[in-house]
Amino acid sequence: MAYQFDFAPVLAHTDLLLQGAAATLGLTAAGAVLGIALGVLGAICRAWRIQPFSAAFGVYVEAIRNTPFLVQLFFIFFGLPALGVKLSGWEASILAMVINLGAYSTEIIRAGIEATPHGQMEAAASLALNRAQTFVYVVLRPALARVWPALVSQVIIVMLGSAVCSQIAAEELTFAANFIQSRNFRAFETFFLATALYFAMALLVRQLLMRLGQRFIVGRPR
Amino acid sequence: MFVQFTTWDIVRNLLEGGKWTLALSLIAFVLGGTAGLLVLFLRMARNRVAQALAKGYIELFQGTPLLMQLFIVFFGLPLAGIDVSPWLAAALGLTLFTSAYLAEIWRGCVESVPRGQWEASASLALGFTQQMRHVILPQALRVAIAPTVGFSVQVVKGTAVTSIIGFTELTKTGSMLANATFQPFLVFGLVAAGYFALCYPLSLYAKSLERKFHVAR
C-alpha cells in the first residue's frame, strides 16, 4: 500500500513549530552577538600578537575548529558539572554557540584586520587620531566590512548547527519537531516542515544581516 | 550488574567507535566527491534547467541543518518501502551533504579558470564534456585541492551528528560510555581528542597546500 502523506496532524502543532523557530532565532541572535564580540577580541590579540593571549586564542581556535559542535555541546552540558559548573540546556547551548562562533570569527576577523593597508595607519597618525579612534575607524570597521559576508555565512552555519541543541533538551525548532513527531507518528511530514522552516530562516537571516551590515558597517558605496 | 571500566577500557571502546567515524568519513567523502562532480557538471552545463536544478540542490543542502537532512533520509526512505539502517541513512545523508558542498567549492575553482580557456577550447571544436575533461578541470584541480582537503574536516565533524539517528560511531560510543561510567568529563574530553587527532592533521595539510599554491602562483 502506498504511503499517504498527511500534513494536517503536523499543522495542528504549528504554534509549537513557530515557538521552536523563535527559540532557534533567539539562540542564534545571542550566539551571534556574543560570538562576534569574542571574535573581535580574539582577532585583535591574534593580529597584534598580544602575548600570552595571542597564543591562548591560537590554541582555542584550533581546538574548536577541529572538533564537532555536538561534542563541544556534550562536553559543556555533561562534562562541566564534574567541575561544579551546572548549566541548563539553554545556557549550555548559548555557551557552546558563542565558543564555536567565537573561534571561527576570530580567524575571519583577523584576516580582515591583517588586510588593513599600512598607509592607512600612517594616514590616521598624520591626522592626529588617537589610538582608540584609529582602532575603531581605521582598523576595526573596515575590517568588519571586508569580511562581513563571511561572518554572515558563519552565523548561518551556527544557526543550522544549533539543531543538535535539541539533544540536550534546549527546546528549539528541532526539539519541537521531535516532540510533535513523537505525538502524531508523522515523522517525515514533521521533519519536512521543520526543514522548510530552517531553510526560510536561513534565507531571512542572511538577508537581514547583509542589510544590517550594509547599513551600519559597510556604509554607502563611495 | 555493574561493570568496572578502567581508563583503558574507555579508550579501547572509543577507538572501536572511532573506526566507524573514520569509515563513514571516507565513504561520505569518496561517494560525495563523485556525486559532487556530477552536480558540478550540471551546475556548469549550458542547459538552463540543469543549472537551476543543481543550484537548487546546492542551496537546499547548504540552507538546512545536516541533522534534518539525516532525519528526512532516515524517516523518508522507509515510506518508499526501502528499509534503512542507521548506517545506510548516515552514509547516504552525509554523501548528499558532502556532494552539495564540494560541488559549490569546485564551482568556484572552475570559474577561476580564465574565460579565454573556454573560448579557445570551443574554437578547437571541443564539446562541453571534452572541454571540462581536457582543458578546464585539469587547471581547476590545482586550485581545488586545498579547499577540498579543508572541507574534509567538515565531513569528519559532520559524522558526529549521525550519532543522533543511532549510528554507533565515536560520539555515540562516548555517550554510552559516559552513561555507563559516570565520567562524562573524561569521556567527552577523550572523544574531543579523538576528533582533534583526525581533523588537525587535515587542517594543517590544507593550510600547507594553500601556502604552496600561493607561492606557485
How do the strands and helices of this protein lay out in sequence?
The complex is a heterodimer of chains A (222) and B (217).
Chain A: H1 8-11, H2 14-47, H3 53-65, H4 69-79, H5 89-114, H6 118-126, H7 131-161, H8 173-184, H9 187-218
Helix pairs in contact in A: 2-3, 2-5, 2-7, 2-8, 3-5, 4-5, 5-7, 7-9, 8-9
Chain B: H1 7-44, H2 48-62, H3 66-76, H4 86-111, H5 115-123, H6 128-158, H7 170-181, H8 184-216
Q: What level of helicity do the residues of chain B show? A: over 70%
Question: How big a fraction of the residues of chain B is strand?
Answer: under 5%
| Number of strand elements of chain A | 0
The largest pleated sheet of chain A is described as: none
The average pLDDT value of chain B, as a whole number, equals 92
- Would you list the SSEs of chain A in sequence order as H and E? HHHHHHHHH
Please tell me the CATH architecture of chain B by its name: Orthogonal Bundle
Form type of chain A = elongated
CATH topology of chain B: MetI-like fold
Total count of strands of chain B: 0
Tally of discrete structural domains of chain A: 1
| Assembly of the depicted chains | heterodimer
The CATH architecture category of chain A equals Orthogonal Bundle
For the termini of chain A, the CA-CA separation is 64 Å
CATH class placement of chain A: Mainly Alpha
- Please give the share of residues in helix of chain A: over 70%
Radius of gyration of chain B: 21 Å
Describe this structure in words.
Chain A is mostly helical and 222 residues long. Helix content of chain A is 77%, strand content 0%. The longest helix of chain A has 34 residues, at 14-47. The termini of chain A are far apart. The model of chain A has no long low-confidence stretch (mean pLDDT 92). In chain B, α5 packs antiparallel against α6. Chain B is flat and about 75 Å long. The model of chain B has no long low-confidence stretch (mean pLDDT 92). Chains A and B meet through α3, α4, α7 and α9 of A and α3, α6, α7 and α8 of B.
